[in-house]
Amino acid sequence: MMSRKYGFVRVITVLFTLFFAQNAHAQQAGTMRYNSTAKQYEFYDGSQWYYLGLGLALGSCTQEAQMDYDPLLAVASYKYCNGTNWIRIVGVPTLMPCSGAGTMDYMSNTFMVCNGLLWTNIKGFLSA
Fold first, then answer.
1. High-pLDDT (> 90) share of the chain, %
2. For residues 48 and 51, what is the distance between their CA atoms, to the nearest angstrom?
3. What is the average per-residue pLDDT within 76-85?
4. In whole angstroms, what is the distance from residue 16 CA to residue 99 CA?
């Protein structure tokens, strides 16, 4: 039969392992998360957290953190809901061709989105 002391130590060990494993994972380059305080998506580039692109409000929504690819308008990109409005992630088109519209990939310390023709760099400004 397991003693209470042994069981308590085992529970604490498991909790510490989960906590530190989760924090280590969060610090990997390319990690993306929704910042519910700033109401924006951000990613870690290996040294600092950055917001994803500049946001343009498009219309109302209610499901905070929902993200969707929007092929409409001249610059196809992702949009996300900040709890009030859809925010279009705007970036800088590159000269690198791509063919999978809606593909998002982490490369060269930034996130890129393929609009079906060119990759668009959606690395925004430093998060607070």
1. 53
2. 10
3. 92
4. 44
